[in-house]
Amino acid sequence: MATNAPATDGRRKAAAARRRARQAAIIAATREIFDSRGVRDVQIEEIASAVGINRAIVYRHFTGKEELFALTLVGYLDELHDAMADAAASGSSPADRLERIVGAFVDYGVAHPAFVDCAQALMVRPGEELLDEIAEGPLFRLGRGITSCLTVLSDTLAQGVDEGAFTLSDDPVLLANALYASGLGALQLARLGILVSEAAPGIPTVGQISAQQVRSYLVRSALALVTV
User: Fold this and answer.
1) What ranges do the domains of the chain cover?
2) Which class would CATH give 65-225?
3) DSSP per residue over the chain, as a string?
4) Whether 55 contacts 123, CB under 8 Å
5) Quick one: fold of 20-61?
6) How much is the CA Rg of the chain, to the nearest whole Å?
7) Helix axes 5-37, 113-123, angle to 10 degrees
8) Which residues form a coiled coil (predicted)?
9) Is the pTM of this model over 0.85?
10) 208: which strand partners?
């Protein structure tokens, strides 16, 4: 007896493939816009225009701007993970590995300022809002992307403790999260390139700071924290 099930399955697979391709194209366009001019004030209409579609189609694939930005951030995080993992693999000792990992984090953030903006934009949102605005699947992918980077760092910290090279007052996972969050803030300082201080009581002054100085500071701070 003839059946149209194979033809129906084929159409479903083809439709699913087209949907995935369209989603990938939208994310790629978002990433290109981010890299060319930053994250602030990017509108869905601009992204849709870059893909050659209207905004309504974007919303068929993503629940909103936050979900689209989160999935774009995943791409940055995948690249950051690879850079941190390569840095860890090239280290000769726990301290050397930690120094290289932190350095790789800073180098990536300096080279990709939109990563910093995107990560911070999502970090300032309350968790309950993100859960409401980002579907479970994309939220899982975002969490996996962040965790993959943090795990490179926390594993290095834990290995250093096991080898007797590090003495931690906190859990390696907590310290890894704290270093990640503080590192994002320091990367903004590197981008601004200015330091505010007091020239005299009540008299502010502005100095300069380079990305290399921020990098050195973050490396020294991380090494200091593991010998507490």
Assistant:
1) 20-61, 65-225
2) mainly alpha
3) ----HHHHHHHHHHHHHHHHHHHHHHHHHHHHHHHHH-STT--HHHHHHHHTS-HHHHHHH-SSHHHHHHHHHHHHHHHHHHHHHHHHHT-SSHHHHHHHHHHHHHHHHHH-HHHHHHHHHHHTS-HHHHHHHS-HHHHHHHHHHHHHHHHHHHHHHHHHHHTTS-B-SS-HHHHHHHHHHHHHHHHHHHHH-EEEEEEETTEEEEEE--HHHHHHHHHHHHHHHTB-
4) no
5) Arc Repressor Mutant, subunit A (1.10.10)
6) 22
7) 110
8) none
9) yes
10) 194
Over residues 114-143, the pLDDT tens digits come to 999 999 888 877 777 777 888 899 999 999
- Structure tokens belonging to residue 171: 């859990």
Q: Which two tokens stand for residue 94?
A: 């726990």
The alpha carbon dihedral of 177, 178, 179, 183 has a sign of positive
* Closest-CA residue to 144 (of 189, 81, 207, 214): 81
Whether 228 has a pLDDT exceeding 80, the answer reads no
pLDDT tens-place string over residues 199-215: 889 899 999 999 999 99
Q: Residue 29: which residues within 8 A CB-CB, separation 6 or more?
A: 47, 50, 51
Name the residue among 80, 83, 100 with its Cα closest to residue 222.
100
d(CA 150, CA 5): 46
